[in-house]
Amino acid sequence: MKQKKKRAMEKNLEKQYFVMVLPGMVIFTIGLIVPMFMAFRYSFTSWDGMTAEKPFVGLQNYIDLLHDADFRAAWWFTLKFTVCNTIIQNVLALVFAVALDSGIKAQKLYRTAFFIPCLISSLIVGFVWLKMFSNVLPALNDLLGTNFNFLLLGDGKTVLSGLLIANNWQWIGYWMLIYLAGLQSIPAELHEAAKVDGANALTRFIHVTIPMLAPAITICVVGITTGSLKVYDLLVSSTKGGPGRASTSIIYQTYATAINGRQYGYGSAMSVTLVFVLLLVALIQVKGLKSREVQQ
Amino acid sequence: MAFWKKKEKEQIPSAPYTKGTLLIQIFMTFAAVLFIAPILIILNYSFKTKKELYLTSPLALPSSLQFDNYKKAFDKLNLATTFTNTLLYTAVSVLILALLCGITAWAIARCKAKFFRFCYVYFIIGILIPYQALFLPIYMIGYKLNLTNTRYGIIFMYVATGISFGVFLMTSFMSTVPIELEEAARIDGCSVFRTYFTVVMPLLKPAMATLVIMQAFQIWNDYLLASLYVSKKNLKTLTVAIQSLFSAQTSDYTTAMAAIVISVLPVAILFISLQKYFIKGMTVGAVKG
User: Fold this and answer.
1) Domain limits at B257?
2) With an 8 Å Cβ cutoff, are B134 and A35 in contact?
3) What is the spatial distance between Cα B164 and Cα A223, in angstroms, rounded to a whole number?
4) Interacting residues of A244 by C-beta distance below 8 A, sequence separation 6+
5) Across the interface, do A188 and B14 touch by the CB < 8 Å criterion?
6) 3-state DSSP call for residue B138?
7) Helix, strand, or coil (residue A56)
8) A99, B28: Cβ pair inside 8 Å?
């Protein structure tokens, strides 16, 4: 009898908790989950975004995507941008964090200096670097009597490196702070113990610091990867996807196809490919986390 | 996650200041100067006249401190409207997010039923798939539900796209909220809702501050969603106005530089005064607790 009463109370509690979760669930479902399913649904139609009817075309959009050179070029650019960013940003952020943690003076001042660029909207960052490359930096050539080519965004061959510079300038400070927090949470005793065992600075870094930084590394790698895959704002104000199509990212291409080109069905199929890649990245992340939990 | 409780560790100079440290200091100073340089250049340009832009070197300082560009930017951005709009969208969205994420995360953390574990995973989907990837269907659903070109529509979307991170952040904070207090309140006959609002919510202040700052900075800087959802002149946000200024002022960009300063200043002030909370929000999960 008593147990029954307890269970009834628990059920009642659960109901109340459920009411608390409900509003968030509803908003999230309408705002993000339903759109995800809409993208799937429309990717099988040739809808133009205007008419009431949405002709079903089966897998035709996906087959077309395979033969679409612009789409492939957009993915190629996005992947190059992502891979380069992930490597450069992680390495530099970690180097900066280690340097700041090495006992230099005025650490906080440096921290702020590196961090400030990430407070600026990507849209503005794109414009600032557009002007940096086209007007400000060439003046340095006159000043120093050198002849560097700073017009990186104007040439299809160099546009990637120009955008990488802009993106790294913006985000290194952000990831550096995460690594710094990770570094400062490593107990000093670990390093002391390794020192007593005769490990030099490099072996200590590889065998003590890196393993202890594992959670920070996961966050940074995944954050930079997903952040680079969704690059759009930066391009709008700097290259507009050009010159030619040299810097058209997948989101930029989807925007051009669907919103400007009125091919909603085809654009939806493009979105779906991006969602799949993001899910793949997530899956790898979950696997990585699991394997580390086993180790602990 | 214990790191919420931990105070920022005192900086113990573990090693003496050696030659190597000095070298690192010099290298980092150099790097920091490179990072700050573009910002100084923006500031410098924002005070230049059009004439100086063409005649003097881009690196030269303006001859006098002029606020003409700022005045022009004020008009061109329609600042009174766009600034108020952006502030309104940001403030209302983060306020709703703070309330909503707190209560959702608490329910998820406290109720052990299977459904709530599912809820957590469900919300995390939003972190794994950022809304930018779904901008097209998000635009379509906004159109369908008549959310586009309305204030509540864009606020709704900022809340919907920010909720995942908020729930993640708040749930990780809940382990630091002592459960005994809640149990005591419950024994005294408090309902779940009253327990939350009178006992738990006051304890969530630091996490809420973190959430508010992180989201405010993201919503303030958002361009994609704002450009999709608002096209009416009186609803536009600062970033959208700045983008049209950028495309209109490609040659005389001193005004654009002043506009940049105007838009970055509020976020910069917010960050510098509340750095502590910001960094906490960023490093959730990065530190072993």
Assistant:
1) 72-282
2) yes
3) 15
4) A156
5) yes
6) helix
7) strand
8) yes
pLDDT of residue B271: 81
Q: Which residues of A touch B192 (CB under 8 A)?
A: 13, 16-17, 20
Longest dimension (CA), chain A: 92
Residues B79 and B59 in one domain: no
B221 touching A (Cβ < 8 Å): yes
- Is A210 within the bounds of a domain? yes
Using the beta-carbon criterion (under 8 Å), do A251 and B132 form an inter-chain contact?
yes
Place of tokens 């992947």: A79
Contact B59 A136 (CB under 8 A): yes
Which range marks the domain in which residue A259 is found?
Answer: 68-295
CATH number of the domain at A100, please: 1.10.3720.10
pLDDT number for residue B2: 41
Classify residue A105: in a domain, yes or no: yes
- Convert the pLDDT of each residue in A165-176 to its tens digit: 999 999 999 899
Q: Does B12 fall in a domain?
A: no
Q: Tens digits of per-residue pLDDT, A30-65?
A: 989 999 998 888 888 888 777 777 778 878 888 888
Residue in A closest to B268 by C-alpha: A119
For range A109-133, the mean pLDDT: 89
> Both B224 and B161 in a single domain?
yes
Domain count of the fold of chain A: 1
Residue B101 in any domain: the answer is yes
Maximum pairwise Cα distance, chain B: 78
Q: Does B203 lie in the same domain as B101? A: yes
Whether B239 contacts chain A with CB within 8 A = yes
Whether B288 is in a domain gets the answer no
Query: What residue has token string 């976020």?
Result: B267
DSSP tag of A45 = B
Is ipTM beyond 0.95? Answer: no
pLDDT, tens digit, 9 for 90 and up, residues A230-286: 899 899 888 887 787 888 999 999 998 888 888 888 889 999 999 999 988 888 877
Domain count, chain B: 2
